[in-house]
């Protein structure tokens, strides 16, 4: 996405250093944060389309009752790999890519702290993705135990499970290295005058997310390693016959899994907290409470894991503890939503595509929050656990949450990355098309779940036919919208789009990235931004 | 309360122009237990609260979106914090949550209180069927999907006429008396399964090697259907649950019938079988336990190996006996699920069917001997 073409009026004081390898070497040996960010984003987009194709295979099979296209075991492989690929291949790398591209620009640093490690943390991902894809071709096929890989089902599978475990190990190492880089960069390389409480919200949320990653990725690695040794080395961590406990796996997995939800959601909060003030032409309401809310969500996320396990049969005290802790999360999350609305309140809003996606995010994430509140109440969750209601809930928070905010981010910063404006009309078509198709796909799933349709089943009772057909139609429409995005928005913009972008394409933008030319030169902030500039922007953001 | 729930759902549905489908099931199934009613009402209560918050939050947001537009000439105000407002919108949600958690706590305590049962049924999850043991009556049976395969395998584009209870019908339903407190003890044989009957608001995972319990007391006679809700492998979607709630008299009659049936089906473990007898018996065992993976024609499917011509099946019989008893990878261990006679019959059948013509006959006594090794 970066381009090395520079027009003279884009010339920058530090531009004379702009020499770098070309061709394949530029990417294989990339140490520049922008190049690595670009690699991450493209990788994530490719994985997003791959996982999307699997989702469409699932929806095609579920279009009508009966088994028409895929055998049940392949169906389970698709649901499993769809989840793993979207979580570890699409959303997490996309946010790491964003962090790579934007954090140095936003804090006035010349690059990420560990440039070579940065290269390695990206280049670990394609082999991991390859392992996942190869697993479809090995005897027994890919892992089919659901993305949660619950033991003892996961100890039964064929070699595909081993490949998946290995892939998770590799992606985990990549995430941890990415997180170390983000933390070190943010803590040590901010421009003079940029105190912690003057950092843009996206930087804050990336920092907290990075801490979450370092805390929980080793836990996941531990869980899948125990599955591996149960499978091949005679241990019995999750096998009652050998003194183990299958439920232990779930406790360990969700101790990772719940913070993981916020690993995908917090950076999204950060993006939206950048976009909404820009297009409301008004500073973010309650910056301090946003920081505190983000931190408390992160801390609470370690205390609620067993709300994914209300039906395993915990003691009543545990059931109650996890219910109370879970409902607590609604408070800081509510604060965030209120803050965004208060930011819009009495602003001077315009609705360019990034703003549309950000508002779409707030609407749909709030809907996901409502179903989250319903699910948090353990007594009711007993009826909804492992049904389509849960599928609806987490797609509202992850597709509409993480993905929509990623689209907001891409449209918001695309002028900075490419040096060109995207077509506003096409961006809006992409937004409305995605928004409508998303709701047609996932809203009916609430009804399916309430009426009693379990998740992860390849065939269903006939009373679920209509809503499933509707959801399948919506899913295909949603898929086509993303192809439209690629061919009608993304690629044309890289080739020139709607004309060259100014350094600061958005009237309301007042963070450091808008102070460098568009496209951002290969090297930026080799001289840190002046104290005056940092103070001026902080004053514009009313940060003190 | 229930009426209101369906209305609020209809209102939500309007938002995505689904109102035309309002005849379809939009809410939780009608509960037939007291606990189920409490869960239903609790869900309605949550839904009403969420709907009110929805109106307030979205109302404020869209008011702002329409009024505070640059295009409408609105100039941006300059405020960016207000401690009072921020405290208010932290405290109010917290209070709402307390209001939600309070009634929920009572329901949870009731859900978890399994004391005072009138009868106990042990439920065992298998890949892929349910086993039921009536501990007080000594009745045991397995319960499998009754929908015929040709109704759901439509890979050739068939458009079969489907049963009314397609995917939700079983060969042997659970039968319980109405108005009796039934305690369920759940466990599993292989992987985790989960037993769910929506009308009872009962969902409990069945965990291999552990026993969990739950309870229900159905207040109304009828047939109630549910499904396994924990992914348990290939046929997770094909192991439904059917509970017949009947009067005490009908239940007693059913118990008598079942006892007779069980006595009649008892194999004499010391019987010495002839080959045709054993193959015929084995066909039944194979069809109900093995064909689901290895297929009726013995050709296997995907990860599940063919038995027709298999080295394991036509090779030394001790290996095959060991494999059936102990399992390996995706192949379950059958030692606890099937009797000596059933295992002997299944092995004899596979060694003398399709292209396999070993002529070997395995007697139950051999299995018994192998078990003790």
Automatic annotation (TrEMBL), chain A:
Top-level EC class: translocase
Entry-linked InterPro entries: Cyt_c_oxase-like_su1_dom, Cyt_c_oxase-like_su1_sf, Cyt_C_Oxase_1, Cyt_c_Oxase_su1_BS, Cyt_c_oxase_su1_dom, Cyt_c_oxidase_su1_bac
Segments passing through the bilayer: 39-61, 81-101, 122-145, 165-189, 201-228, 248-272, 284-306, 318-342, 354-380, 392-414, 430-449, 469-491
Start and end residues of each Cytochrome oxidase subunit I profile domain: 27-532
UniProt KW keywords: Cell membrane, Copper, Electron transport, Heme, Iron, Membrane, Metal-binding, Respiratory chain, Translocase, Transmembrane, Transmembrane helix, Transport
Major place of residence: membrane
Membrane topology: Multi-pass membrane protein
Keyword Ion transport carried by entry: no
Catalysed reactions, semicolon-separated: 4 Fe(II)-[cytochrome c] + O2 + 8 H(+)(in) = 4 Fe(III)-[cytochrome c] + 2 H2O + 4 H(+)(out)
Pathway annotation: Energy metabolism; oxidative phosphorylation
Keyword Membrane: yes
Domain of life, per lineage: Bacteria
EC number: 7.1.1.9
Compartment list: Cell membrane; Membrane
Function: Cytochrome c oxidase is the component of the respiratory chain that catalyzes the reduction of oxygen to water. Subunits 1-3 form the functional core of the enzyme complex. CO I is the catalytic subunit of the enzyme. Electrons originating in cytochrome c are transferred via the copper A center of subunit 2 and heme A of subunit 1 to the bimetallic center formed by heme A3 and copper B.
PANTHER family tied to this protein: CYTOCHROME C OXIDASE SUBUNIT 1
Membership in a protein family: Belongs to the heme-copper respiratory oxidase family.
Name of the protein this chain belongs to: Cytochrome c oxidase subunit 1
Phylogenetic classification of the source organism: Bacteria, Pseudomonadati, Pseudomonadota, Betaproteobacteria, Neisseriales
UniProtKB/TrEMBL annotation, chain B:
Function: Subunits I and II form the functional core of the enzyme complex. Electrons originating in cytochrome c are transferred via heme a and Cu(A) to the binuclear center formed by heme a3 and Cu(B).
Cellular localisation: Cell membrane; Cell outer membrane; Membrane
Organism: Chitinimonas prasina
Cofactor binding, per record: Binds a copper A center.
Phylogenetic lineage: Bacteria, Pseudomonadati, Pseudomonadota, Betaproteobacteria, Neisseriales
Enzyme class: translocase
The name this protein goes by in its record: Cytochrome c oxidase subunit 2
Domain named Cytochrome oxidase subunit II copper A binding: residues: 116-257
Domain of life: Bacteria
Membrane topology designation: Multi-pass membrane protein; Lipid-anchor
PROSITE patterns to which the protein is assigned, alphabetical: COX2, COX2_CUA, COX2_TM, CYTC
Principal place of residence: membrane
NCBIfam families xrefs: CoxB
Keyword list, A-Z: Copper, Electron transport, Heme, Iron, Membrane, Metal-binding, Respiratory chain, Signal, Translocase, Transmembrane, Transmembrane helix, Transport
PANTHER family (UniProt xref): CYTOCHROME C OXIDASE SUBUNIT 2, CYTOCHROME C OXIDASE, SUBUNIT II
Domain Cytochrome oxidase subunit II transmembrane region profile: 20-115
Transmembrane stretches, start-end: 46-66, 87-105
Family (UniProt): Belongs to the cytochrome c oxidase subunit 2 family.
Catalyzed reaction equations: 4 Fe(II)-[cytochrome c] + O2 + 8 H(+)(in) = 4 Fe(III)-[cytochrome c] + 2 H2O + 4 H(+)(out)
Signal sequence, renumbered to the chain: 1-22
Cofactor section: Cu cation
Limits of the Cytochrome c domain: 277-354
């Amino acid at each position: 996405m970066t381009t090395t073409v520079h027009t003279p009026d884009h010339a920058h004081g530090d531009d004379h250093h702009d020499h770098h390898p070309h061709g394949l070497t530029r990417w294989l040996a990339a140490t520049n944060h922008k190049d690595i960010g670009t690699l991450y984003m493209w990788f994530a987009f490719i994985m997003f389309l791959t996982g999307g194709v699997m989702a469409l295979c699932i929806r095609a099979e579920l279009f009508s009752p009966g088994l028409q296209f895929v055998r049940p075991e392949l169906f389970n492989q698709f649901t499993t790999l769809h989840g793993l690929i979207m979580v570890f291949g699409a959303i997490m790398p996309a946010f790491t890519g964003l962090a790579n591209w934007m954090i140095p620009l936003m804090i006035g640093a010349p690059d990420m702290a560990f440039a070579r490690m940065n290269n390695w943390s990206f280049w670990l991902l394609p082999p991991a993705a390859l392992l996942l894809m190869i697993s479809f071709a090995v005897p027994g096929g890919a892992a089919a135990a659901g993305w949660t890989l619950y033991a003892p089902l996961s100890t039964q599978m064929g070699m595909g499970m081993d490949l998946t475990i290995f892939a998770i190990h590799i992606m985990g190492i990549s995430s941890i290295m990415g997180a170390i880089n983000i933390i070190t960069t943010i803590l040590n390389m901010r421009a003079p005058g940029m105190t912690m409480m003057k950092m843009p919200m996206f930087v804050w949320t990336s920092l907290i997310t990075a801490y979450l990653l370092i805390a929980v990725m080793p836990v996941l690695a531990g869980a899948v390693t125990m599955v591996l040794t149960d499978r091949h080395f005679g241990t019995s961590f999750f096998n009652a016959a050998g003194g183990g406990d299958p439920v232990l796996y779930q406790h360990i997995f969700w101790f990772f899994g719940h913070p993981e939800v916020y690993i995908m959601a917090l950076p999204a909060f950060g993006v939206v907290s950048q976009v909404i003030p820009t297009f409301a032409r008004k500073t973010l309401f309650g910056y301090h409470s946003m920081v505190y809310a983000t931190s408390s969500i992160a801390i609470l996320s370690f205390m609620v894991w067993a709300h994914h396990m209300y039906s395993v049969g915990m003691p009543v005290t545990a059931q109650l503890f996890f219910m109370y802790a879970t409902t607590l999360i609604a408070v800081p999350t509510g604060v965030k939503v209120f803050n965004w609305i208060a930011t819009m309140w009495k602003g001077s809003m315009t609705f360019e595509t990034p703003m549309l996606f950000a508002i779409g995010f707030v609407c749909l994430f709030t809907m996901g929050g409502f179903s989250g509140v319903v699910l948090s109440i353990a007594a009711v969750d007993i009826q909804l656990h492992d049904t389509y209601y849960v599928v609806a809930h987490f797609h509202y928070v992850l597709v509409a949450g993480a993905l929509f905010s990623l689209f907001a981010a891409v449209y918001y910063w695309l002028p900075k990355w490419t040096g060109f404006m995207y077509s506003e009309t096409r961006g809006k078509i992409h937004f409305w098309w995605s928004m409508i198709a998303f709701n047609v796909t996932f809203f009916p799933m609430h009804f399916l779940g309430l009426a009693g349709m379990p998740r992860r089943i390849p065939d269903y009772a006939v009373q679920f036919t209509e809503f499933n057909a509707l959801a399948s139609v919506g899913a295909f429409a949603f898929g086509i919208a993303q192809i439209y995005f690629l061919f009608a928005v993304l690629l044309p913009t890289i080739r020139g789009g709607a004309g060259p972008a100014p350094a600061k394409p958005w009237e309301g933008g007042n963070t450091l990235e808008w102070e460098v030319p568009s496209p951002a030169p290969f090297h930026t902030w080799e001289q840190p931004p002046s104290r005056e500039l940092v103070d001026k922007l902080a004053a514009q953001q009313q940060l003190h | 309360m229930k009426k209101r729930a369906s209305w609020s759902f209809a209102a939500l549905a309007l938002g995505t122009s689904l109102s035309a489908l309002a005849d379809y099931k939009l809410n939780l199934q009608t509960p037939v237990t007291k606990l189920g009613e409490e869960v239903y009402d609790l869900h309605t209560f949550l839904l009403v609260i969420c709907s009110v918050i929805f109106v307030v939050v979205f109302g404020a947001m869209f008011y702002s979106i329409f009024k505070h537009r640059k295009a409408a000439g609105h100039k941006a105000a300059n405020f960016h914090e207000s401690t009072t407002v921020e405290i208010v919108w932290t405290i109010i949600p917290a209070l709402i949550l307390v209001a939600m958690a309070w009634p929920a706590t009572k329901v949870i305590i009731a859900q978890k209180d399994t004391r005072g049962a009138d009868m106990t049924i042990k439920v065992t999850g298998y890949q892929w069927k349910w086993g039921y043991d009536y501990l007080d009556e000594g009745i045991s049976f397995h319960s499998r999907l009754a929908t015929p395969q040709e109704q759901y395998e439509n890979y050739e584009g068939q458009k079969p006429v489907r049963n009314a209870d397609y995917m939700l019908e079983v060969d042997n339903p659970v039968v319980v008396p109405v108005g009796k407190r039934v305690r369920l003890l759940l466990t599993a044989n292989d992987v985790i399964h989960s037993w769910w009957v929506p009308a009872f608001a009962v969902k409990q995972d069945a965990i291999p090697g552990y026993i969990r319990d739950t309870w229900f007391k159905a207040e109304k006679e009828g047939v109630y259907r549910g499904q396994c809700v924990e992914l348990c492998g290939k046929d997770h979607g094909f192991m439904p649950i059917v509970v017949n709630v009947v009067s005490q008299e009908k239940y007693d009659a059913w118990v008598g019938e079942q006892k007779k049936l069980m006595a009649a089906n008892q194999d004499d473990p010391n019987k010495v079988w002839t080959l045709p007898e054993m193959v015929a018996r084995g066909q039944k065992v194979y069809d109900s336990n093995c064909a689901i993976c290895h297929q009726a024609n013995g050709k296997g499917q995907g990860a599940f190996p063919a038995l027709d011509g298999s080295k394991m099946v036509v090779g030394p019989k001790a290996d095959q006996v060991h494999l059936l008893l102990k399992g390996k990878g995706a192949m379950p261990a059958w030692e606890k699920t099937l009797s000596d006679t059933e295992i002997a019959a299944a092995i004899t059948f596979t060694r003398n069917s399709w292209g396999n013509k070993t002529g070997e006959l395995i007697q139950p006594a051999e299995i018994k001997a192998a078990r003790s090794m």
